[in-house]
Specification:
- By secondary structure, this protein is α+β, with helices and mostly antiparallel strands.
- It folds into two domains: about 5-85, Winged helix-like DNA-binding domain superfamily/Winged helix DNA-binding domain (Arc Repressor Mutant, subunit A), CATH 1.10.10.10; about 105-154.
- Helices cover about 30% and strands about 15% of the residues.
- The chain has four helices and six strands, in the order ααβααβββββ.
- It has helices at about 20-30, 35-45, 55-60, 70-85, and strands spanning about 50, 90-95, 95-100, 105-110, 115-120, 145-150.
- A three-stranded antiparallel beta sheet has the order 1-3-2. Strands 5-4-6 form a three-stranded mixed beta sheet, with no helix packed on it.
- Helix 2 packs across helix 3 (about 55-60) and helix 3 packs across helix 4.
- The longest helix is centred in the middle third of the chain and has 13 residues, at about 70-85.
- The N and C termini lie far apart (about 50 Å).
Length: about 150
Amino acid sequence: MQSLNDQDEKSAVGTAVSCSGIEAFLAKHKIKPTRQRVAIATHMFEKEQHLSADTILERVNNDAGTTSVSKATVYNTLKLFVKQGILKEVALDPQRILFDTNVSDHHHVLNLDNGDIRDIEPVKINLQDIEGINQNLNVSGVDLIIRVRDSEPD
């Protein structure tokens, strides 16, 4: 069984992650591994994915082997995971936020017709060419979401 400690720091995802591996991973990132946090992390980090808090809530509470959690616990835990750098928050719009297990620098392609979201390698953007960004500002991040629609058949 693969342990989270053996994996690249950019991604906490394992194909088969043991409970003790999740606990060690959380502790390594200064997160107290409570039963609820371990249950949430187990579902969140089972593979590279983009999930909403509601999806995680449903998965954890439908898993007969775990403790049930409240919506507030899920939101607070996911926010803590983001703060500690093990998840990335992706705001598709003000009403739709997903949590991404891939915390490396990357961008996204979102299919508006089916909701599919995919990671893509970061593109080079010449920030000096963007109006409003000058030498007195420090860029803290670039989040690019390319929105696409399925092609209409001819």
